[in-house]
Fold Methyltransferase domain-containing protein.
Amino acid sequence: MTLSKKMRNIQAMEQQVDLFRCPICTAEMEMVEHSRLVCSTNHSFDLSKSGYVNLAPQAHVTKYDKSLFEARTTVMNSGFFDPVLEVITRIIHEGSKGTPVILDAGCGEGSHLADIVSRLAGKASGIGIDLAKEGIAAAAKEHPGAVWSVADLANCPFQDEKFDVILNILSPANYAEFTRLLKKGGLCVKAVPEASYLKELRAIFYEENVPKEDTDPVGRFAEHFDAVQTERVTYTFPLAEHHLAPLIRMTPLTWGASEEKIRKALQLGLPEITIDFTVMLGVKRNG
Ligand SMILES: C[S@@+](CC[C@H](N)C(=O)[O-])C[C@H]1O[C@@H](n2cnc3c(N)ncnc32)[C@H](O)[C@@H]1O
Ligand SMILES: [Zn+2]
């Protein structure tokens, strides 16, 4: 980690310090000596060596570990997700003015947020949070210049009505919290997988189709936001041989699969993989 990467993260956080509120007492926070966030009643949170801040109320051990995020980075760098990111960027570009402040709630290793901010020609401020420390550590290292924080999206350490856009890609949502955080007229953009998402992997790892956890994500979304629109993004992506192992590693679909089955899948190979998403867009409800 070079100093400049760390400093770029710290500078971004200093510029956006007004967004924060203390995760313990909800008081306002300030940056002290470029090295910690401190609230007005003196709760203090040191910045990490790479310039992110951990504002999660307690340490969380999740299944999202360092190797999973490394695998996600490898797959995302291959352009796997580009058409989805193009759609999301267009939605943000068309739906917001000036320099939007974008919160990625459940940002993982941060590549989507960094990509979207760069597609917006840097004319946006990115704030990424995730409960998995390994994801945020990777984001701070690989994508300096945004605000990166370990935090719970169900209890965000941010003030009310400060964000123009909330992104929620393949991550759990908390709509009451997202509504609190959005400015009036702010946008929520959520991407959920559809039936054909990674269907080639499902065919190998499941004998039968596994039921989806949320059977009506659009209906649930529409209960909380106005002017809801959806866009289906479906395509097949040619898979280089060396991307199959990280693809298998990165997805919760294969958690619990035996080594034997993984070996078989690698031997079999997969020339292409299907991506199938619904991207939802909704506007904060008045009142
Ligand atoms: C499938 S990953 C998606 C990550 C990223 N958005 C992407 O598309 O690559 C789901 C993410 O949600 C995060 N997550 C789950 N519950 C969370 C919570 N309560 N607060 C913040 N992040 C959470 C996980 O740590 C994980 O990084
Ligand atoms: Zn406090």
In short: The chain is about 35% helix and 25% strand. The chain has a mean pLDDT of 93. The first helix runs from residue 3 to 15. Residues 62, 64, 72, 106-108, 112, 129-132, 135, 152-154, 169-172 surround S-adenosylmethionine (ligand 1) (CB under 6 Å).
